């Protein structure tokens, strides 16, 4: 059984705000820890997952000045579940705008898990001079093969009863392209069907991201308000391939050369197959790779959590 490490004590933000990033979007952010300590930014998953108080506890508050934010359209950012002007490159620009809120922060540690790892890679490859270190968990490079594995054929074979529930809102004739069918439902005018589809999409992920069933993950993904942003944003991003060329993040991994980094990935990660994390490690000179046995996708899996805390502790001294 992997060693379990405790999270840092719960702390409250010392600053919160809503940053107007244009295009009608206002992004909620918070800063926690010690003002003037090592700067870091936390990038949540989804897209559309939002931040939680637990995420603050991955960093030693005595040694970090950590910024967390809800990406466009989710959490406490507004408009809720909004799709307009909401792309990967808008979010990359938002990260830069948030960095500039703290004068003198030329570089910061970037921490991203799941979709957050995708966003971290996109940001670091565009702005390598702004990244002091990278900590990535549950690497997702948003290739068509990864999308097909999770939303068409692959994980369906591991969770047949959950897959049947995921298929249920979609007419039989449209099940050959599940993402497109869900896109129609999630953007359609029928609000009841939109909410039904959002819950089914959200629960498919909430019930397949841990090695063993997790009531906490199920309950979060079953919340109707959470599910609407989560499902609409994920589907919106993935229908557009996250505005990345297929395989782009792996092809351009050489841009990360010189950035110290740690990759943490569960052996039995269902949404994000381990081969892509391994490929990133091979393409990223100097990266450190931890493939955690007996773990799925979620950051709360004991072996994954321990490796993440080890990484933030180690980089706090740099």
Describe it:
There is one protein chain. The protein is an alpha/beta fold and 318 residues long. The protein folds into 2 domains: 15-143 and 243-316, Alpha/Beta hydrolase fold, catalytic domain (Rossmann fold), CATH 3.40.50; 145-240, no CATH class. Helix content is 39%, strand content 17%. It has 12 helices and 8 strands. The chain has helices at residues 53-56, 88-99, 115-126, 144-151, 160-167, 178-187, 191-206, 215-222, 224-239, 248-251, 274-283, 302-316; strands spanning 15-22, 25-33, 38-43, 64-69, 108-113, 131-137, 261-266, 288-292. An 8-stranded mixed β-sheet has the order 1-2-4-3-5-6-7-8, sandwiched between helices. Strand 5 (108-113), helix 3 (115-126) and strand 6 (131-137) form a beta-alpha-beta unit. Helix 7 crosses helix 9 (224-239). The radius of gyration is 18 Å and the shape is globular. It starts with 14 loop residues before the first strand and ends with a helix. The mean pLDDT is 96. Its EC number is 3.4.11.5. Belongs to the peptidase S33 family. This is Proline iminopeptidase. It comes from Paracidovorax wautersii.
What is the topology?
Blueprint: E1 15-22, E2 25-33, E3 38-43, H1 53-56, E4 64-69, H2 88-99, E5 108-113, H3 115-126, E6 131-137, H4 144-151, H5 160-167, H6 178-187, H7 191-206, H8 215-222, H9 224-239, H10 248-251, E7 261-266, H11 274-283, E8 288-292, H12 302-316
Parallel strand pairs: 3-4, 3-5, 5-6, 6-7, 7-8
Antiparallel strand pairs: 1-2, 2-4
Helix pairs in contact: 2-3, 5-7, 6-7, 6-9, 7-8, 7-9
């Amino acid at each position: 059984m992997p060693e379990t490490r405790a999270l840092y004590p719960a702390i409250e933000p010392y600053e919160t705000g809503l940053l107007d990033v244009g295009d009608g979007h206002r992004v909620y952010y918070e800063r926690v820890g010690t003002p003037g300590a090592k700067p870091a930014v936390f990038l949540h998953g989804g897209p559309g997952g939002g931040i939680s108080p637990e995420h603050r506890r991955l960093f030693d508050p005595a040694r970090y000045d950590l910024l967390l934010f809800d990406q466009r359209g989710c959490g406490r950012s507004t408009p809720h579940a909004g799709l307009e002007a909401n792309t990967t490159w808008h979010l990359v620009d938002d990260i830069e705008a948030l960095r500039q809120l703290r004068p003198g922060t030329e570089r910061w540690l970037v921490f991203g898990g799941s979709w957050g790892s995708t966003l971290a890679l996109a940001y670091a490859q565009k702005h390598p001079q702004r990244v002091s270190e990278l900590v990535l968990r549950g690497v997702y490079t948003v290739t068509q093969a990864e999308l097909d594995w999770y939303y068409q054929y692959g994980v369906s074979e591991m969770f047949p009863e959950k897959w049947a529930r995921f298929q249920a809102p979609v007419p039989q004739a449209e099940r050959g392209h599940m993402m497109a069918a869900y896109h129609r439902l999630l953007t359609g005018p029928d609000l009841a069907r939109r909410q039904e589809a959002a819950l089914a999409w959200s629960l498919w992920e909430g019930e397949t991201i841990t090695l063993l069933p997790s009531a906490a993950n199920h309950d979060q993904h079953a919340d109707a308000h959470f599910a609407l942003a989560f499902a609409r944003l994920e589907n919106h991003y993935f229908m557009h391939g996250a505005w990345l060329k297929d395989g782009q993040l792996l092809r351009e991994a050489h841009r990360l050369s010189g950035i110290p980094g740690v990759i943490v990935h569960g052996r039995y990660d269902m949404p994000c197959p381990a081969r892509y994390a391994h490929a990133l490690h091979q393409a990223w000179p100097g990266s450190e790779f931890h493939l955690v046995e007996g773990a799925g996708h979620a950051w709360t899996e004991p072996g994954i959590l321990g490796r993440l805390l080890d990484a933030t502790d180690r980089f706090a001294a740099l």
